[in-house]
Every structure is written in structure tokens, then in C-alpha cells.
Prior knowledge:
Blueprint: H1 2-27, E1 35-38, E2 47-50, H2 52-61, H3 78-81, H4 93-107, H5 128-146, H6 148-151, H7 158-162, E3 180-181, E4 184-185, E5 193-194, E6 200-201, H8 207-211, H9 232-249, H10 270-290, H11 313-317, H12 329-332, H13 355-360
Amino acid sequence: xxxxxxxxxxxxxxLLALMLAAxxxxxxxxxxxxxxQQIGYRGVQMGNVYNPRTVAKLQAVNQxxxxxxxxxxxxxxxxxxxxxxxxLTDLNVAEFTRVMLAMTEWVSPEQGxxxxxxxxxxxxxxxxxxxxxxxMLEMTRNINMNWQPHVVQTGxxxxxxxxxxxxxANVWFINPGPGKTKGLTADRAGQNTPSIGSTSLxxxxxxxxxxxxxNIRTVSETALPNGSKYNIMQTEQTYSLMIHMSEGxxxxxxxxxxxxxxxxxxxxxxxxxxxxxxxxxxxxxNTSYLxxxxxxxxANRLGPGGDVAKINCSTxxxxxxxxxxxAPMAKDYPELTxxxxxxxxxxVDPATADPAAADAAAAAPADAGTVATxx
Length: 375
């Protein structure tokens, strides 16, 4: 009896340890059922896997509000009736009022008009939110008119990002990295801090690509050990960005890439070209519209390094491959598709840019002055 009791005492902790180990392994898996969609030839592992429970949650948070009633008849221009109209100068009074009502619903449903306007003087520019929203209107028109290779005819409105909130749910600030611990600098050289999904990758994956124009393509064109121009950190940063895009759009890598050749444009899906333009669009919006507004924001709206909030793929997509499942909100608001924005000729022209040519430029010498990309 004593031996059996002793054996039982030994087996109990072992059984518990095995149960814990099994629970740990299962915790990294999704509970079935899951569904899959084949998007490429059989045998090349091109398909998307969806969890019905996740899809149901995403559908619930991607509902589109009913559009404001359309305007009818002629009316004088808003700029001739109201004071200090600087952006929507081409809208008549009815169109202008319609946009203002929609923006209130999209951005400040609780605060109402006074989130941007002084209650006793609507023309006053004292509130920083009014100065910012004016520039955001210019940005929205720029996206709808000049970045159609990414947003096509679906377009965007303020609601695409804000979803009824003053601040979009998914924005990013420059990550200053780990601080000092007991007088010592915790220097990890920018790497190996869990930050992107559940992986341990560089803590700053957005700055090099979504503000700066760092090379995304890090696959060597020649056999190792010679010829590679890229280091491990660049490779990890690229992987971090790809993980972000996968999670932000709720898709697998093969949504854009052919698993047989991740770098080859000729074997990629059309979505890869759309994503190529999207990266450049986000970079343009961050550098041309958001960062120049830094001085307008109060300190409590800035990041730990004093920088303004910036956008990434999740800001608009929020877990689905097409924001709001492709609802063409811009069609309901033609007031936001008219543009009065001057385009910088030095910037990449999204209408004529050729991602395949940029991919071929990756093989050029480092001093050729080209910016190579693989996305």
C-alpha cells in the first residue's frame, strides 16, 4: 500500500505537468471550425484561412452609417455666406452643411460641432481640432483623387479611420525603445523586443517604411556569402511590417505573394500591386499631412518622443482586406472627391508608378540612387 501511494504521489505531479504542457500547446491554436479560401493554383499553398467567430466580430464593427440625405437644388457657395471657409470653397451651402453634419457623426458624435468650433464664433480658429480637421479634409480629397491605384473607386471618408471616435483606434508613434534601468542603458540595438503580434522582432517596424523610404526588399539576389546588401535587422524589420500588414488586413501572406516565389512580381496576385501603392500612400500621408501638424497638437496628444500620431495599414483596414468590407462611402459623398491639392512632382506618381520596375531596381548597385522594393 505504501509503494502504491508513493507511486501515485509521483504520478500526480507528472500528470499535471503533462496536462499543463498540452494546454500550452493547444493555446497557440485556434479552436475549430475554420474555413479556407483557395486563391491560387493547387499545391502552391495560396489560400486564406478564416475563423467564423472572428469574421462575425469583424462584421459587427465594420457597419457603415447611413449617408446624410443628398442635397437638392441650387444654393450660393458656402464661402460667400460663411466666414473663414478655406478648404471647401467649391461647395454650396447645402453641400457644406451636409459634410459638416457627416463629420460630426463620424468624428465627434458626443461633443458635436463644438469639438472643432468655438460655440460663440464658428469662424474662429482657436481650437486646434479645427485647424487639424481642415488639413484632414484636404488629405481625404487627395486620397480620393490622387491615390485611386490603392483606394480605386471605393475611396475614403473621415469614418474610414475614425469610426465615431475623436482619435482613430489604430495609430502609431515613434517608439523610443527601452529606457534606463538602475542607471544603465538597456540597449538592444533596436531588436528583440516583443512588439509585433506575438513575435520578438524590432520594436520599431513602422518608421523605416511608413515614414522613411527604407528598402523593403531584403532577399539577396546572389548566393551567400557574397553579394547581400542587407543585414539581419533590416530583414527582421521587413518581416515585422509584413506581419503587421497580414494582421491589419486579416489575411495570409499569400493574399499578395505566391508561396513559390515571394519576390517575383509576375507570379504575385493583383493585390500585391495594390499594397505597393498603399505603402507609398501611407508614407505620403504621414510625411505630407500628419507630421507637419505636430506643432498644432497639445502635448497630451503627442507620443513619448513628441511626435504626432501617424497611420499604418490597420488605421483604415481594421482587420479586413477592404476597409468597411469595401463599402463605397465616397460615392455617397462626392463633396469629398473634389480636390484642390497641388501634387509634389518629386513624389512617386501613383498613376504611372511601376512596382515591377522598382523590383528590378533591387539588383542595381547601391550607389545607383534607386530605392528598391519588393512589396
